[in-house]
Specification:
This protein has 641 residues and is α/β, with parallel strands linked by helices. It has 3 domains: 361 residues, Aldolase class I (TIM Barrel, Alpha-Beta Barrel); 136 residues, Rossmann fold (3-Layer(aba) Sandwich), CATH 3.40.50; 121 residues, FAD/NAD(P)-binding domain (3-Layer(bba) Sandwich). It contains 21 helices and 27 strands.
Length: 641
């Protein structure tokens, strides 16, 4: 029973119908050439308002063209942006969701080549480019830009605004000692470093009136040397309340911090809750917490225990816009779960690509799908393979009214993704498999286990279409001495499935995602591991956020990493290779684990020529890649056919 999460809450003059806020996300789509919002962004928000969230925020609302975080974010710095914003507000209004805009200036973390900041100090990570210190006149002009942008939001009909004072953007740069070394009225003391923020608040209030609600997102901790810390956050909080702020949204991290602003699956749930809890003790206004809060009962517990008044979620509402309504009804198993991979969301947008979601291919396509009609006739679909691609396709076909049967030659669902979910810290990958399996049960889709595709099965079922989602297997490379070595030769699948045991000293061939995960799996068992990566970079297919935490784990184990390796040959108990211009010989090893390429499993396709039924390949059976392609191809083929 969620006793608190769906109770109303007063926030200044506003009442939110529940305690859920969809936090601002720089989604990097849905604007035209002038950065005015389009139907793509409007429908993205309408879909989430329909889903029942109490409050939600437009992310990346730029107050000045010189401070845009990313190229395709909505701008608030010109009056001609107001009509499109007004239309968006009107489209959201029927759904009783409080709708706001997060106003921000990226400062030294802007994507632009010429950046401004409190001091001429570059960002510690992610972004590059020249940084110039702002003059006093420029600071005052930017204060006015925040106020003018808030006025435009008010004119467009938004219920509130949120000032972005966190995550290493311009306001946070003024507040943090490591990014502000000014010696004038905007630097040095706590009062001076926070002056820019209070000037902004005053300017907004002067232009919108004191009754227009202003919230603020602040960091409880920058998690970086000489950064903004919790002691200063709790000192700031009551001052913000006195200044008229109606809520405090407490987060953490900056570019280059040891704890990432958008943490991956390796991070504990509720990783920033303690920061909000500390701030909440200092104020009487609502405090919102954030940070890997994914499950409804966990969110409810945080509020019940008085650690925060509301819970903000971002990625969970990308994964499932209808999360709130499903949670309110107690339909937890129907919530499509975020798996914390960070790939479609933050990784994509930092690469200046449109944001998306690995488990929900509909993100950004809501405007195209809103008038999608169900097919005129029901087809009989046979799906071969019950991995993520097969189950996703089966679900989508069933949702569209088709008759679906899944055959799986093994005794369980999940394929290699299930194996990946058994690796340390990656258990949440199984959440999406559980979701698909429960959905197939709900939709009465039969899975026949221990059943390979055969002509007899095809004749018995007589399907209209056959979808091959048969997955992939590790591919054995041809390298001198590999098949003559006296070391045990196994694959990553053998190791993680428990079908093969390895000795204490292990060589892992492959430095991609599976190679590093395998190395971590072995190191967690106390093995000594050497990773040989023949590519220039490690785990390029992972998001940078997810990879960061995995690399940090590897540092704690007995793992040596070598990249851009040229292998001369394997010997009886080791390997000879060249890396960074130096030839090395490693000896005394017990096992070699192959974890480089995957090859598609397509044997079943040979049956296509013996039947009239057309075959279609999806997922790894089409081409081994990451999970995003598996699910998107699966759902797309169900719509296309």
């Amino acid at each position: 029973m969620l006793s608190k999460l769906f109770s109303p809450i007063q926030i200044g003059p506003m009442t939110s119908k529940n305690r859920l806020l969809m936090s601002a996300m720089s989604i990097n789509f849905g604007v035209d050439e002038n950065c005015c919002v389009t139907d793509q962004l409007i429908e993205y928000f309408v879909e989430r308002a329909k889903g029942g969230v109490g409050m939600m925020l437009v992310g990346g609302g730029g107050v000045h063209p010189g401070g845009q975080e990313l190229p395709d974010l909505p701008q608030m710095y010109r009056d001609d942006c107001i009509p499109a914003l007004k239309e968006m507000v009107q489209r959201v209004k029927p759904y009783d969701t409080l709708f706001g805009v997060q106003l921000m200036h990226g400062g030294r973390q802007s994507y632009l080549p010429q950046k401004v900041a409190p001091s001429a100090l570059p960002a510690p990570a992610v972004v590059k480019g020249e940084v110039r210190a702002l003059t006093i006149d420029e600071i005052k002009a930017l204060v006015s830009c925040f106020g003018d942008s808030a006025r435009r939001c008010q004119a467009a009909g938004f219920d509130f605004i949120e000032i972005h004072g966190a995550h290493g953007y311009l306001i946070n740069q003024f507040m943090a000692p490591n990014s502000n070394i000014r010696t004038d009225e905007y630097g040095g003391s706590f009062e001076n470093r926070t002056r820019f923020l209070f000037d902004i608040i005053a300017d907004i209030q002067a232009k919108t009136g004191k009754d227009f609600p202003i919230g603020i997102r602040i960091n409880g901790n920058d998690y970086i040397e000489n950064g903004w810390g919790l002691d200063e956050a709790v000192r700031l909080a009551p001052l913000l309340e006195t200044a008229g702020i109606v809520y405090l949204h407490v987060s953490g991290g900056v570019y280059g911090s040891t704890e990432l602003t958008i943490p991956s699956m390796y991070t504990p749930h509720g990783c920033f809750v303690h920061l909000a809890e500390a701030v909440k003790r200092q104020v009487s206004i609502p405090v919102i917490t954030v940070g890997r809060i994914k499950y409804p009962d966990h969110a409810d517990q945080i509020i019940q225990e008085g650690k925060a008044d509301m819970v903000a979620m971002g990625r969970s509402f990308l994964a499932d816009p209808y999360y709130p309504e499903k949670a309110r009804k107690g339909e937890f198993s129907r919530i499509r779960p975020c798996v914390g991979c960070c790939l479609g969301c933050i990784h994509a947008v930092l690469a200046k690509e449109p944001g998306s979601c690995v488990v929900n291919p509909d993100v950004g396509r809501e405007y195209k799908l809103k008038q999608e009609a169900l097919p005129d006739q029901s087809l009989k679909i046979l799906i071969v393979g019950a991995g993520p691609a097969g189950m996703a396709a089966a679900r989508q076909f069933a949702v569209q009214g088709h008759q679906v049967l899944v055959c799986e030659k093994k005794q369980n669902t999940g394929g290699v993704l299930f194996l990946a979910s058994t690796a340390p810290g990656r258990e949440e990958l199984n959440d999406i498999l559980v979701f698909f399996k429960q959905e197939l049960d709900r939709l009465n889709v039969e899975i026949r286990y221990d059943t390979a595709l055969s002509l007899a099965l095809i004749h018995d079922i007589n399907p209209d279409k056959i979808i091959l989602a048969t997955g992939s297997l590790p591919d054995m490379p041809v390298i001198k001495g590999l098949f003559q070595t006296k070391m045990d030769l196994v694959t990553n699948v053998d190791v993680i499935s428990g079908n093969a045991q390895v000795g204490h000293r292990v060589i892992v061939l492959g430095g991609g995602m599976t190679g590093l995960i395998t190395a971590d799996f072995l190191a967690d068992q106390g093995k000594q591991v050497v990773v040989l990566n023949r590519k220039k970079r490690f785990a390029e297919e992972m998001s940078s956020n997810d990879r960061y935490y995995l690399r940090e784990r590897l540092k704690k184990g007995d793992v040596s990493l070598h990249k851009n390796v040229s292998i001369k040959g394997f010997i009886d108990d080791g390997v000879v290779f060249k890396a960074q211009g130096e030839e090395m010989t490693l000896t005394g090893f017990d096992s070699v684990v192959i974890s480089e390429k995957q090859r598609p499993i397509r044997e079943a396709k040979k049956l296509e020529g013996k039947t009239h039924v057309p075959f279609y390949l999806i997922g790894d059976a089409k081409s081994p890649r990451h999970l995003m392609y598996c699910i998107s191809e699966a759902e797309e083929i169900a719509r296309a056919l």
